[in-house]
Amino acid sequence: MTKDAARFPTWTALRTSREEENERFLASVLFDGAGSVESLFTARHTFVDATLAQLYGLPPVTGWQRVRRRTRTSFRPTSSPACRPGSASPSTRRTPSVLAVTS
Questions:
Q1: Where do the H-state alpha helices sit in 10-63?
Q2: 101: nearest Cα among 63, 48, 51, 55
Q3: How far apart are CA 15 and CA 69, in angstroms?
Q4: Which residues pair with 65 in a beta bridge?
Q5: Cβ(76)–Cβ(83) under 8 Å?
Q6: Which long-range contacts (CB under 8 A, 24 or more apart) does 74-82 make?
Q7: E-strand spans in the chain?
Q8: CA dist 97 → 7, 27, 77 (Å)
Q9: Engineered SS bond to 3: which of 11, 38, 102, 103, CB 3.0-4.6 Å?
């Protein structure tokens, strides 16, 4: 099933950016960091491009930037209040708490 490009014009760019974010994050944790499964959940960074920076409410970036953050949209635990039925809006469930752009 594909998204209707007329109804969701930013979906393709967002999907591509999210996939690249995950690849960069995994590579940094596994090869540059502790390399443990635990560190996938506890690492305090991710990567953003211009598309994700806009989604996360960050200043515009050029290329890919490493950012500090509190949670990842891909690894949010199911016990999170945002995942409980009726407790949060969809926008709350998908938006992580990114703290700051770093170099």
A1: 11-27, 37-42, 50-55
A2: 48
A3: 20
A4: 48
A5: yes
A6: 74/18, 74/22, 75/40, 75/41
A7: 45-48, 65-69, 98-101
A8: 27, 21, 14
A9: 11
Digit-coded pLDDT (tens) for 9-33: 777 788 889 999 999 999 999 998 8
Token code pair at residue 62: 């050029």
Query: How many residues would you count in the chain?
Result: 103
Distance CA(83)–CA(76), nearest Å, equals: 8
66 in Cβ contact with 44 (< 8 Å): no
**Cβ distance 22 to 74 under 8 Å?**
yes
Q: What is the pLDDT of residues 28-64, one digit of tens each?
A: 999 988 888 888 888 889 899 999 998 888 899 999 9
**Domain boundary assignment for the chain:** 11-101
Q: Which two tokens stand for residue 74?
A: 């891909």
